[in-house]
Amino acid sequence: MQTIMLVDDDPIFRSMISSYLQKLDFDVMEAGDGLEALQLLRDHVPDLIICDLNMPIMSGIELVEEVSWQFPMLPMIVVSATEDMSDVARVLRFGIKDFLTKPITKLDHFTDAIKTTLDESQNNPSVVRDFSSQWFRVDSSGVVAEETELYWHLNHLKDNTVTARDLLHALQPERDTQQGDWKCSYLILQSSENMPLVFDYSWLMDGRFAFYLVDSSAGGDNGVGTALLVRALFNDFLRTRKRCHSDLKDLAEAIEKGIGCTQCADPIPAIFGIADMVEGTISILPAGIKSNWMQQGKNQAIEMGIKLGEGCTKNFVTSDLPMKKGGELVLSELGVRSFKLSIKNTNS
């Protein structure tokens, strides 16, 4: 029998969910706060933890962080009534497999989230995946299985535009990142009232720096879903191909394949790039956003091309632009918004 630890300071909620889980043939451990949960973990490690965020003594956020360090392979689901998207984004970065909102009105959705998380943990115990991949059920080949999509997450975000906007803002990565002598920093200037430009990046095993940017405001009703899907496919593509050379067109093709598999995503303006710190070059694939690469007083314009989702792999890849000491990628024609990615060799 599989064991689920339920961590919540509300005894009524705990009692209700515990009874429901027991009817599903789960053994249930209960804790009223994060500290009590950690004490229970000393004697028995469950198959899954379900926890609230707002609790006394030790909050759910502190518990998630601690469990992610002590038990990195232990899956967790957050069930919370919080409206603070910065809190949600913070726990999602620590490897939370799913986030559900209180009150739980659809128990079948709750059950599906539990079963899918447990199946993923059992079948791929060593895989650390971005939470968006869980929402879209992206498989190892990058295919989005439409019949198992978690539509209620995306429908919730569609119906709550402020929540959706705040989540995308909160999910932006750290502004500065460094590996060896190379430092990368980005700056986005935009209104907090609008759907944002969404940026993400990843350092590859060979020291290269991969990144993308999408304009979620130009994705229509599915702008948020598309931005989250791009995030999922970007991370899964790099995770599965981290030991081989990742090509920009292969990346774009995988993402376009995912967009074509779901009704929750539409074509969207984007741009992709990979900076090679060893060679001192950068390559850019436009997908509906115009940009300029500026390096040592020289300006290379990169036309916007076809949007992501409409065949952007037909666009020309501007390859091997010089980057010996660094440079800046600046986006233009974005109205009142602006974006700049600065790459610098700190040893030069």
TrEMBL record:
Task: Tell me the PROSITE patterns matching this sequence.
Answer: RESPONSE_REGULATORY
- Residues of the Response regulatory domain: 3-117
Q: Which Pfam families match?
A: Response_reg (PF00072)
Give all 4-aspartylphosphate modified positions: 52
* Keyword set includes Ion transport: no
Q: Which GO terms describe its biological process?
A: phosphorelay signal transduction system
What domain of life is recorded for the organism? Answer: Bacteria
Keyword terms, alphabetized: Phosphoprotein
Q: Looking at the keywords, is Phosphoprotein present?
A: yes
- What's the protein here called? Response regulator
